[in-house]
Amino acid sequence: MSTQHLIVKAARTALGLSRKELAELAGLSDRTIYNIETNQDYVLLDTLMKVRRVFAERGLELVEGNGERGWGLYFKSNKTS
Questions:
Q1: What is the pLDDT of residues 24-40, one digit of tens each?
Q2: CA 31 to CA 2: how far, in whole Å?
Q3: pTM score, two decimals?
Q4: How many angstroms separate the CA atoms of 20 and 12, rounded?
C-alpha cells in the first residue's frame, strides 16, 4: 500500500504551505494537489516531480520507500562546514 499521498501532505504542512500555495509554486491546480493528498487519482511522474522540485527548493526531500520502510522526509541542513 502506497503512502505517497500522506507524505506529500506532511511535507507541504511541514513547510507551512497551503494547498493553493504549493499548487501555484508547482504550476499545478489546487485540485491536483488535493487529488494527490487524498489519493484520488493516479499521479503522473511529471506531476510528482513538479511537487518534489518545490519541496527540494525549500530544503526538503521526499525519500521513497524501499519495501522495508515507507516514504519519508529528509530536511537538508543549511549549515556549512
A1: 999 999 999 999 999 88
A2: 20
A3: 0.81
A4: 11
